Amino acid sequence: MNFYPFDWGMIGSLLPIVALLLCSALTSGSETALFSLSPTQLDKIRRSQTPVNKAIMKLLSDQDKLLASILIFNNLVNILIISLCNRLIDRVVVFNSAGWEFAIKTVAVTFVLLLFGEIIPKVYASYNPSGFSRLVALPIEFITRIFRPFSFVLGKYSDAIQNRGIIQPENISMEELEDALEITENPSETEKEMLSGIVQFASKEVEEIMHPRMDIVAIDEEADFDEVRRIILESGFSRIPVYKESIDHIVGMLYIKDMLRYVGQPADFDWRKHLRPAYYTPEHKRINELLEEFQRQKVHIAIVVDEYGSTLGLVSLEDIIEEIVGEINDESDAPEEVLYKELSDGVYLFEAKANIALLEEVLDLDEGTFDDCRGEAETIAGMMLESKKEFLKRGDKMSFHGVKLTVMKSSGHHAEEIKVEREAK
Fold first, then answer.
1. Ramachandran bin of 316, using left for φ above 0, alpha for ψ from -120 to 50, beta for the remaining angles
2. Which of 325, 352, 367 is the last residue of a domain?
């Protein structure tokens, strides 16, 4: 490999290459910058009506045309760079072997083009999309005008391909969204819980978040006003269901704010005429659908019923919102209920209504350990009831996967406290 003597014409051939390389860098960076603007940055640009900002918003108003124009111009510039580089190399170098000619003309030129025309500008643009967008907005707007006919044809062609089903939009599954959340860089615990709640929001059903039947505070329709006042003061709730004969027959909802003006009335005061209609929802309704119904109907609470119309539980607007933002506590909320306590090393006393997931967590068991024996049950008592097939009573004992459960306290037809201990191996 030999070199030709230097002449000033080589410098003249180099200058257009540098200029074109600069154009390639700005065009490549503009693609990254314009499409990386965050909603906050776009809002600032939208509010400041300068010529540059107006150009940015105009470009982003038709992103398909913008992308087509950038790609057409960038490819033309890169082709010119390669062609001019080959001519310059032929003026500078005499190749004695095809291998060296291939290495210089192809590998070296490609490396320079990728490094200075693609990688460096795109990396810079990704770190400063707002500033880079303002730098290139007016030139890119001019380029889109020049290449409008070509970008129009490309846009129509891509639309035709998509309409024929050759390009199909890919649906993203909930699992993929959860995986994306897991690899998100440096999220706080609060952000992570909220994003996870949003991802899972549409898949949850009412029965998963409702307050069960046994936890409902309700008023008998036959109660006098003194009893109603007592229940209102003890419960601290703003809305209380009212039933006739049994909780399966809810006749309305008592809003506490409707009773404030009558607080001094005697025991025989007819409080029933102030009842509002109760709102019902099936147990398997999705909570996002129920939220829309709450908004349309302007209600905040619903009675959850099964297919036979029996009352299963109660769900409120706050319960739905908590699935996204986490637990909401205010001054009227009671301290969080402790669902278990440790009696001795490895022996615990659980509330019968405690969730099976909590049992697995406390005993340091794998999630889903009891899935094969829990059936449809969500609570420890429910799992035991699923196995026994009849009502639980004090002294009932069962074992699941090396964990011994003993009913320590029961009332009526349901268990209240269950002792949990690992069986000796």
1. beta
2. 325
pLDDT at 108 > cutoff 60 = yes
Q: Distance between CA atoms of 404 and 214, rounded to whole angstroms?
A: 25
Same domain, 295 and 213: yes
Contacts (Cβ under 8 Å, ≥6 apart) of 367: 357, 360
Whether residue 12 sits in one domain with residue 144 = yes
> For the chain, how many structural domains are there in total?
4
Assess whether 319 and 347 both reside in one domain: no
Which tens digits make up the pLDDT trace of 109-140?
A: 888 888 888 889 889 888 888 889 889 889 88
Q: Is 169 within a domain?
A: no
Pick from 138, 112, 102: nearest CA to 26: 138
Cross-strand partners of 240:
254
Burial of 20 (0-12, 13-18, 19+ CB in 10 A): buried
Both 122 and 11 in a single domain? yes
**CA proximity to 29, closest of 169, 171, 137:** 137
Regarding whether 151 and 21 lie in a shared domain, the answer is: yes
Asked if the structure places residue 368 within a domain, the reply is: yes
pLDDT (mean) for 39-64: 84
- Is residue 27 domain-shared with residue 136, that is, in the same domain? yes
How confident is the prediction for the chain on average, in pLDDT? Answer: 81
Work out the percent of the chain whose per-residue pLDDT is above 70. 80
Structure tokens of 121? Answer: 């500008």
Does residue 216 contact residue 247 with C-beta atoms inside 8 Å? Answer: yes
The full DSSP string for 5-34 is PP-HHHHHHHHHHHHHHHHHHHHHHHHHHH
Residue 350 domain boundaries: 340-422
Q: pLDDT tens digits, residue range 343-375?
A: 888 889 998 888 888 888 888 888 888 888 888
| Rounded (to 5) percent helix, strand, coil in the chain | 55, 20, 30
Query: Buried (b) or exposed (e) across 124-148, using 16+ Cβ within 10 A?
Result: bbeeebbebbbbbbeebbebbeebe
Query: How many other CB atoms are found less than 10 A from the CB of residue 281?
Result: 20
d(CA 112, CA 54): 34
- Residue 148 covered by a domain: yes
Question: How many whole angstroms separate alpha carbon 1 and alpha carbon 132?
Answer: 42
In whole angstroms, give the CA distance from residue 239 to residue 242: 10
Whether pLDDT at 391 is above 90 = no
7 shares its domain with 134: yes
